[in-house]
Design goal:
The complex is a heterodimer of chains A (about 220) and B (about 900). Chain A is mostly helical. Chain A is built from 4 helices and no strands. Helices cover about 75% and strands about 0% of the residues of chain A. Chain A has a single domain, classed as Growth Hormone, Chain: A (Up-down Bundle). In chain A, helix 1 runs antiparallel to helix 3 and helix 2 runs antiparallel to helix 4. Chain B is α+β, with helices and mostly antiparallel strands. Chain B has 14 helices and 53 strands. In chain B, the strands form 14 sheets. Chain B has a 5-stranded antiparallel beta sheet with strand order 1-10-9-5-6. In chain B, helix 1 crosses helix 2. The longest helix of chain B has 27 residues. The radius of gyration of chain B is 71 Å and the shape is flat. Chain B starts with a strand and ends in a 26-residue tail after the last helix. Classes of the chains: A mainly alpha (about 220), B alpha+beta (about 900). The interface between A and B is medium-sized, with 19 and 16 residues.
Chain lengths: ~220, ~900
């Protein structure tokens, strides 16, 4: 009788324990899901912001090129297609998302130096009140912001992977140029920068589906 | 650097004897700030190594917090002349109690004080005067700490920032504001620093003493994370607000959407398409929109739910609108990220009218019933309002009047089209038709409304026979409240009404509204005017059949009448009363229910008033003064005030009606009475009057003297009365004197003979038969008689001896009785001829009479001087005779008796009593 009672109590204890463990397991899974969803949301928000800023920078670069051409006098479109040395490549390189994001970042950094040179050249060529100077300032600041945002996104996605330094050390700038060369140089820089932003925008849109969703899959437990 | 030695403190003040005490007033007198500036300079100016202090206080603090305990230490340095027991602390000239001291060791004394108040104070460590050295160097044994009191800064709250749109960009200037918390003092002010960090990028800040600040960045950092916070700091500490970390779009407030337009589509009468433009490029910020709209007749906005709006749309179709209605719409926008950004201002209005549609409700049909031309019929006027959902402009009504007994004869059941000319519409209602309806007839009326698209369902109204009209509502009450007229009624006692029609009528306004069967307390929805009298009626409707109405008059708001009553007199005013009557103020100018009339009237300074009820239109003023001008006016009062009418003036009569007649009649009667009495008196006293006024003068022609005289046989008539003598007083006019003379002359021979022989002329007054002629003459001479008082009166008398002796002189027969016979003739007795021996100075009457006729021929030959003398003499005599007149009158009233007529020896004058006797 006593043994049966003990057995009964043990069974009841085991049932209770099992129930509690099940409840804890469900809570843990739910917590993991919630955390994963939160991280996924943060990833998506960060990428979304980066993409939106890239799009804004692209829009502003288009407007900037239009303004630039307008303030350079009679300038043929083909002059903007003349290859100029030391202007960074607008194409995004790398195979992995981390590499491609890093490529976007390094290219942006490279263009910031060229933007500074163009601004200095145009300061000599334009009146101080010229809208071109204002737009150049905005484009440069926007590029800096975009670089910072890409950096932040990269750090969020790959916290253990430091961003690589630009290849070849400091950005190489062209030697002193005459006015025509300055105009051509500026136009080429702006057009190349626009292409970079276009490529970056496309890249970020693709990354949205790759990076953030994949991480969700990684973090999702399988029962 | 707030701890200071007293040495330079008293150098500042120039007070060597009591440096610390002199410094204190300077601080307290408002010169604290100046002193605080001077102290560091003086410290620097001190010579190196000189003026060393033996006391040193600590800590060196910038400020102390109010409400906390502050502990300071005072240390003795470079001397063993004093110990910590010799030290004491002062705050605001008050020595801190010993129990607050803490002796650390022999050279250090601590004090703990509680910081209260916001006033700047000094805390001094001083030394007792334990030696002459201390006394002489008091300034070196003193050190102090300036207590700048304040509060710790509190955490700024409710930090909010905003970045406005500028052109096609978001402005790089971000303006933030926050709520300051806690208190601050003048000495310890709190400053704020607005911090803005662009995450992974730069940090910006700006300081201010206020609670708002603006930061201008290079560009607005779209899509960048911003961290914004406010740092509050003062001398007592620093504290940060909560950090606001949001994407930059969180702070954006854009311009409102531009180019907002409505598009109306005929095929969709209940919808309007709304289009607009983004205020900013989509690359800058994604937007969501909010739409609100209202009809032209409403001022309450209807908001389109945000859930019905997609992000970044630029058009929206508003549905379920009323056809043919003007709608106004506005749009605003904000960041499409939930909870981000601020709503922009509302856009400008977009206005459009929806297309027309078929009327979706029945027209509102009603009737106005009035008496017909004869007693057995009614005049019914049908009026109609557009359907509530007319969905377009009603161009015509179609009406059909169905007479149940007529059975459609004479085309009465045919629809009749009534075009609507809006200029003829009165108060929104259209008069359709007027019919004469016999009291014993009932009709059914049907009306439809038609617009450009279609026709409405028919509205019906049934007019029953007059005798069959069902009962009205009961206990109808109307009262104003909240700018509206409210009605309350009880349903009719008989059949249940299916609906009610509330009708209100003013002078130039008539309108109605329908209420359902359960309505008991309703407000009139029409636009009622203030100060207008409305007749509010409630008609019960029994399945389309109209019932009897109940009516009440009411004002939405009452005021003083626009004019006062016009008062006038009813008839003519009386002497003490006047009846006033006044006209009722026209209803359109009454502006309220008349509560009373106040009649005011005045005749000068004092105004009298009489208050009469409103149903009175005439009043009689009483107690007025006669022959007085009164101004009267009437004020009509409502609950909203009173108005005074024009003055009316009238003058009360001097005499009351009939008063004059009464006086005239009274006077006439009095006069008549007097006259009658006089006449009666005259009648009854005619003899006396006759004697007094018309004395009987004997007719000389009838004189009997002639008969007495023997020489005159012609006069043989015997005197009628014996022993009576009369005196005839004859007024002889001067003009008659001549004739008298002539008569006298005619009778002169006769008289001459008679008098010369037998008779003596006696003067007037000789009336006694017993008196002798001589005596009579003598008496006459001395006393005069009444006849003498009048110059024109000559009395003649003759004394005739009763025994009839001729030629016998009276003097020789004094006892012999003589008969006096008085002649009533105006012929004078020629005494002068009878008695030529009688001299004039003796006063012969005859001579006097003779001289009184200035026009006589004898006078004409006289000297004028003589005449004057004679006249003078005569005047004097007349004056002397006047004194005797009363006696003579008295004497005349007594008839002569025998005793009286007896001769008197003293020749006293006997008045001629009884005047004369008829002879």
């Amino acid at each position: 009788m006593n043994g049966h009672v003990k057995s009964m109590r043990f069974q009841q204890f085991m049932e209770l324990t099992t129930t509690l463990l099940s409840l804890l397991l469900v809570m843990a899974v739910d917590s993991t899901r919630t955390a994963a969803a939160s991280r996924n949301q943060q990833c998506g928000n960060s990428l979304q912001q980066t993409w939106k800023l890239t799009r804004l920078a692209l829009k502003e670069s288009v407007d900037l090129i239009r303004t630039y051409k307008a303030y350079q006098g009679e300038m043929s479109e083909r002059f903007c297609k003349v290859p100029v040395s030391d202007v960074p490549d607008p194409n995004i390189s790398g195979l992995e998302p981390s590499e491609r994001i890093a490529s976007i970042y390094t290219h942006l950094q490279a263009f910031l130096a060229h933007f500074k040179r163009v601004y200095e050249q145009q300061t000599d060529l334009q009146l101080p009140t010229s809208p071109l100077l204002t737009e150049l300032t905005i484009a440069r600041a926007r590029g800096r912001s975009l670089a910072a945002l890409v950096n932040s996104f990269y750090q969020r996605l790959f916290p253990n992977l430091p961003l690589p330094e630009p290849a070849g050390g400091a950005t190489a700038l062209p030697p002193p140029q005459n006015v025509f060369q300055q105009k051509v140089y500026g136009c080429v820089v702006l057009k190349t920068y626009k292409e970079l932003l276009s490529n970056a925008s496309r890249e970020l849109r693709m990354l949205k589906s790759k990076v953030c969703r994949r991480r969700i899959q990684i973090n999702t437990p399988i029962f | 650097m707030r701890t200071r030695s007293c040495t330079y403190l008293y150098e500042v003040t120039g007070c060597l004897s009591s440096p610390c005490r002199s410094a204190r007033p300077l601080m307290e007198s408002g010169g604290g700030a100046a002193m605080l500036l001077l102290v560091p300079l003086l410290v620097c100016a001190l010579p190196a190594g000189g003026n060393k202090n033996y006391l040193l206080t600590a800590p060196d603090i910038q400020a102390v917090e109010i409400g906390t305990d502050f502990t300071a230490s005072c240390m003795i340095i470079d001397t063993d002349e004093i110990t910590a027991d010799d030290l004491y602390w002062n705050v605001s000239q008050t020595t801190v109690p010993r129990e607050r001291y803490t002796k650390v060791n022999q050279t250090t004394l601590n004090v703990t004080i509680h910081i209260t108040g916001e006033k700047l104070e000094w805390l001094f460590c001083l030394c007792k005067k334990v030696s002459s050295n201390v006394i002489l160097n008091e300034g070196r044994f003193c050190h102090g700490i300036m207590l700048q009191k304040g509060y710790r800064p509190m955490r700024p709250e409710n930090v909010s920032c905003e970045a406005l749109q500028a052109g096609q960009q978001i402005s790089p200037t971000i303006t933030c504001s926050w709520a300051a918390a806690g208190r601050q003092t003048k000495e310890v002010p709190t400053k704020y620093t607005l911090m803005l960090k662009v995450v992974s990028s730069e940090t910006f800040n700006v300081s201010t003493e206020g609670t708002s600040a603006s930061l201008t960045l290079n560009i607005f950092p779209n899509f960048m994370e911003l961290e914004i916070w406010v740092v509050a700091h003062n001398k007592l500490g620093t504290i940060e607000s909560e950090r606001l970390r949001r994407e930059a779009g969180f702070f954006v407030k854009t311009d409102p959407p531009a180019n907002v337009i409505f598009i109306s589509e005929t095929s969709f009468p209940t919808t309007l398409l709304l289009n607009w433009s983004r205020p900013i490029k989509i690359q800058q910020i994604g937007l969501i929109y909010e739409i609100r709209f209202c009809s032209n007749y409403s001022h309450e906005w209807t908001y389109v739910p945000l859930s019905d709006m997609n992000k970044d749309i630029q058009s929206f179709r508003l549905q379920y609108l009323q056809p043919d209605t003007v709608y106004v719409c506005q749009v605003r926008c904000k960041n499409d990220k939930e909870g981000y950004g601020y709503w922009s201002e509302w856009s400008s209005n977009a206005t459009e009218r929806t297309p027309e549609d078929r009327p979706k409700s029945k027209p509102d049909l009603w009737k106005i019933t009035s008496d017909g031309d004869n007693a057995i019929e009614r005049r019914v006027q049908f009026i109609c309002k557009d359907p509530v959902f007319s969905n377009g402009r009603i161009t015509r009504f179609e009406m059909k009047v169905v007479d149940q007994k007529d059975r459609g004869k004479n085309g009465s059941w045919v629809w009749q089209s009534i075009p609507v000319n809006r200029s003829e519409a009165h108060g929104g209602a259209v008069i359709l038709r007027e019919i004469r309806l016999a009291d014993k007839k009932s009709v059914k009326v049907f009306v439809t409304a038609t617009n450009s698209v279609g026709k409405s369902d028919p509205a019906a109204l049934f007019i029953p026979e007059k005798a069959h009209e069902l009962g009205p509502v009961e206990d109808l009450k109307v009262w104003p409240r909240g700018g509206r007229l409210w009605l309350d009624w009880k349903p009719p006692g008989g059949a249940a009404a299916t609906e009610y029609v509330v009708q209100w009528v003013a002078a130039d306004q008539m309108d109605w509204q329908r209420e359902n069967r359960s309505s008991r307390l309703v407000a009139i929805k029409g636009d009622l005017k203030k100060f207008v009298c409305y007749t509010v009626s409630v008609y019960p409707i029994y399945s389309g059949w109209t019932g009897k109405s109940a009516s009440v008059q009411a004002f939405l708001e009452q005021s003083a009448p626009l004019e006062g009553p016009a008062v006038c007199l009813s008839g003519k005013p009386g002497r003490n009363e006047a009846e006033l009557m006044w006209t009722q103020i026209p209803l359109s100018r009454r502006q309220g229910f008349i509560t009373n009339y106040t009649i005011s009237y005045t005749s000068g300074s004092q105004v009298h008033t009489v208050v009469v009820p409103p149903n009175v239109s005439s009043y009689t003023l009483t107690s007025l003064l006669g022959n007085t001008k009164y101004d009267v006016w009437i004020s009509a009062a409502t609950v909203g005030g009173s108005s005074k009418g024009f003055n009316h003036s009238f003058t009360t009569l001097k005499y009351a009606p009939g008063e004059i007649e009464f006086i005239v009649v009274g006077v006439s009667l009095g006069f008549l009475f007097v006259f009658v009495m006089t006449m009666l008196l005259c009648f009854y006293k005619k003899d006396a009057i006759k004697r007094n006024f018309w004395p009987q003068i004997p007719n000389p022609g009838e004189s009997t003297i002639g008969t007495w005289s023997p020489e005159c046989p012609l006069k043989t008539e015997t005197p009628k009365e014996n022993c009576l003598s009369g005196i005839s007083v004859l007024d002889v006019d001067v003009c008659d004197g001549k004739s008298v003379f002539e008569e006298d002359k005619a009778g002169l021979p006769l008289k001459k003979d008679k008098y010369l022989s037998e008779e003596h002329s006696s003067g007037i007054g000789g009336s006694s038969c017993m008196s002798s002629p001589r005596q009579s003459v003598s008496d006459s001479d001395e006393g005069g008689d009444m006849a003498d008082t009048t110059a024109s009166t000559v009395q003649y008398s003759s004394v005739v001896a009763s025994n009839g002796y001729k030629g016998q002189t009276p003097s020789s027969q004094p006892q012999q009785q003589a008969v006096f016979s008085r002649s009533e003739s105006t012929q004078p007795l020629l005494d002068c001829e009878e008695n030529p021996d009688v001299s004039v100075p003796e006063g012969s009457r005859q001579s006097q009479r003779f001289l009184r006729h200035p026009r006589s021929s004898s006078h004409a030959n006289r000297d004028p001087a003589d005449i004057d003398r004679l006249l003078e003499t005569e005047r004097r005599e007349a004056l002397e005779h006047l004194d005797f007149c009363p006696l003579e009158e008295d004497a005349e009233q007594t008839p002569p008796t025998d005793e009286q007529s007896a001769p008197r020896p003293a020749s006293s004058y006997m008045p001629q009593l009884g005047g004369y006797r008829p002879q």
